[in-house]
Amino acid sequence: MFEKLALYLQYPFVRYALIVGILIALCSSLFGVTLVLKRYSFIGDGLSHVAFGAMAIAAVLNLTNEMLLVLPLTIISAILLLRSGRKAKIQGDAAIAMISVAALAFGYLLMNLFSASPNLSGDVCTTLFGSTSILTLSRRDVWLCAGLSLAVIVIFILFYNKIFAVTFDEDFSLAAGVNANHYNLLIAVVIAVIIVLAMNLVGSLLISALVIFPALSAMRLFHHFKKVTICSAVLSVVCALLGILISILAGTPVGSTIVAVDVVVFGICYVVGAVTGGFH
Amino acid sequence: MALLTIRDLSAGYDSHAVVSGLNFTVNSGDYLCIVGENGSGKTTLMKTLLRLQEPIGGEIIMGDGLQKNEIGYLPQQTMVQRDFPASVREIVLSGCQGRSGLRPFYNKAEKALVQENLKRMGISDLADHCYRELSGGQQQRVLLARALCATRKILLLDEPVSGLDPKVTADMYDLIAKLNREGITIIMISHDIEAAVRYASHILHIGTTIFYGTKDAYRESSIGKMFLMQQEGGEADV
Ligand SMILES: Nc1ncnc2c1ncn2[C@@H]1O[C@H](COP(=O)(O)OP(=O)(O)O)[C@@H](O)[C@H]1O
Ligand SMILES: [Mg+2]
């Protein structure tokens, strides 16, 4: 088994895939804690469907670089969803459900009507559940993913204290003279970027899992924000690494393998947290 | 000039006023208590004073060199805060976010300020504890320490004692009175009128009739008499 692994790791594209996978897992977990605590999980879900719709449009338009369309569309939707979510809580939820289902339906419809691809259901399946193998990432994808992931990580570190403050108590931040709306906007844009990134790794239906499971697992174990954040990043990276390796060795689809590992780890953390009451 | 001057203020949601026709001033060192029935718009007024929402009409004038990032606020507790994984130190440190501006990390002076305010609230030994595992009274002290990191001038407190038992409530009131004696202006929402007239220097009563004046004037006013009697009667029933 290890020989097989060593053999695979000799290929540069396998190593690239591992690096990209780890970077994406890292940055998606960083904002996962904020997403869960701010009750934005549903926005993540809605956005991933929007990204799917955008992907379909890109496929129909035969764009060589679909990111150029998918990224701006998802960012704009993130901003709009955040606005509507703040104004009216119930209608905001309904708006998200509407947008996400509509994006799914139209995306599939578009692909069906206009796609020239010989393997349509394969394409759809890939967009929804991630590539069957992360090894199909092109060199350009690799660089784009790495660049965006690093940007997300740098933003998170620079704004860590403000993100904590705005997540914990937005009203206090506003009262203390901090422009919390700017930070909410920043969070929304970064989440959109993460979702587009994560789509490469796990596909649009499994993104929420990638973002939320490590955060939920970490919150079972720790009770300080910094420790939760670090733990969730570590768990996410370890799960992604394990998932990618298993998928290479066993030939399973990479996205669902990673998410399966995330779920198992959550189960373990749940039990450990319940038994020990968490670590201080 | 007064710290805050409120002229003909209306506050509410979506251009529907919940309270209107408010005129009052808050001077440095005042202890203003805002009282009134549930749903009379006390929280709405406080959020408007804090600029969390736009006034529907009238104006709020800040004086005495009061800056936007020199205001401490203790909100009514929200659901999100209750299960939030954060240590006491992390939360109190976030009180420095207004003064740290765009600087990404907190500096030595801000960390020292946190230490000082933890001590002032008597919770130094809880610094590394998890916020959600504290008692209600301890949680309020943490939020008060955070508010003190944001200001040396004025605190706005929204029902700081709701849900606390009588002994802890009395301690909390004493703590706030002590801060006021140290020179911090207090604006506090309470529906405990008896405590309001004991501790405050001024009372703002909102509801169908609006009263603003010193607490002695409030005791003499018809609305004050009525309310004080009602509450005593209410408590006698229990
Ligand atoms: N976000 C909101 N949107 C619309 N109306 C609101 C909102 N929050 C409170 N209200 C209404 O404003 C009135 C005053 O509420 P509030 O200021 O919370 O009262 P109090 O703090 O005095 O109990 C209530 O009738 C309430 O229903
Ligand atoms: Mg209220």
Give a brief description:
Chain A has 280 residues and is mainly α.
Describe the structure.
The complex is a heterodimer of chains A (280) and B (238). Chain A has 280 residues and is mostly helical. Chain A has a single domain (2-276), classed as ABC transporter involved in vitamin B12 uptake, BtuC. Chain A is 83% helix and 0% strand. Chain A has helices spanning 2-9, 12-37, 41-60, 67-87, 89-114, 120-129, 139-158, 160-168, 170-175, 180-202, 207-221, 225-250, 254-276. The mean pLDDT of chain A is 85. Chain B is of the alpha/beta class. Chain B is 40% helix and 23% strand. Chain B contains 10 helices and 9 strands. Chain B has helices at residues 42-49, 79-82, 88-93, 97-100, 108-120, 136-150, 166-181, 193-199, 215-220, 222-237; strands at residues 4-13, 16-26, 31-35, 57-62, 71-74, 154-158, 185-189, 202-205, 211-214. In chain B, strand 8 (202-205) and strand 9 form a beta hairpin. In chain B, helix 5 crosses helix 6 (136-150). The model of chain B has no long low-confidence stretch (mean pLDDT 90). The chains are: A mainly alpha (280), B alpha/beta (238). The interface between A and B is medium-sized, with 29 and 39 residues. Bound molecules: adenosine-5'-diphosphate and magnesium ion.
What order do the helices and strands of chain A follow?
Answer: HHHHHHHHHHHHH
Share of helix of chain A, binned: over 70%
Q: Number of DSSP strands of chain A?
A: 0
| Shape category of chain B | globular
Task: Output the CATH class name of chain A.
Answer: Mainly Alpha
Low-confidence stretches of chain A: none
β-strand percent of chain B reads 15-25%
Class inferred from helices and paired strands of chain B? alpha/beta
Overall geometric form of chain A: globular
Radius of gyration of chain A: 19 Å
Biggest interface, chains and residue tallies: A-B, 29 and 39 residues
Per DSSP, the total helix count of chain B is 10
User: What is the CATH architecture annotation of chain A?
Assistant: Orthogonal Bundle
Low-confidence stretches of chain B: none
* Oligomeric assembly: heterodimer
Question: How many independent structural domains of chain A?
Answer: 1
How many helices of chain A does DSSP assign? 13
CATH fold annotation of chain A: ABC transporter involved in vitamin B12 uptake, BtuC
Please give the share of residues in helix of chain B.
25-40%
Structural class of chain A: mainly alpha
